[in-house]
Amino acid sequence: MDFRPIDAGDLEACADVFYAADDELMVRLGLPRSLRNRPNLLRLFGHISATSPDRAWLAEHAGAVIGFGMAAQRDELVFLSFLFVHPDDQARGVGRALLERCMVESARRAVCIGAIQPIAAALYARYGMVPLVPMYTFVGRPRTDLPALPATLTVAPLEIAQTAALDRTVTGFARAVDHAAWQAWERRLFGLFEGS
Prior knowledge:
Strand order of the largest sheet: 1-2-3-4-5
Strand content: 15-25%
Helix content: 25-40%
Mean pLDDT: 90
Number of strands: 7
Largest sheet: 5 strands, mixed
Distance between the termini: 55 Å
Number of helices: 6
Structural class: alpha+beta
Oligomer: single chain
């Protein structure tokens, strides 16, 4: 087994591993397969691996990609964005080896993980990333309209230049490189304002 940094030519193979691993997990748990959005997934892989190239690694065996990991470093924080191993190669230490490469020399680490992945959660906990904040997903159709905002609050477009101070206050790090990418992808930024 070989490990090497990810380059732009590897992104398709990483997507194949991602979908194979995700499908296997969902089927095993009796859940529906996740929706596919390959072009956006590849764009996200490209952004993360380009902005944090030292933290994007893949594992190969006999010339085939069997796993990959990508972390985004923003200031002191290193966020593990993706860590997937092909189902045929899991439980062989591939994920641990990728994690160690992606998160090397990172004192401040973070990851988001679904509760349906206890094995991954145990791996991350061994490396100091433990559950702190629950995130919930709600699905359904609204039965009533959302209430109006209080008169003192407004929603308005937000400029990238306005995000740095807000990001630092809320998260402790700036991510202008991400905001610029999202803007290039025609995403729109909005802020909730009280006065200015």
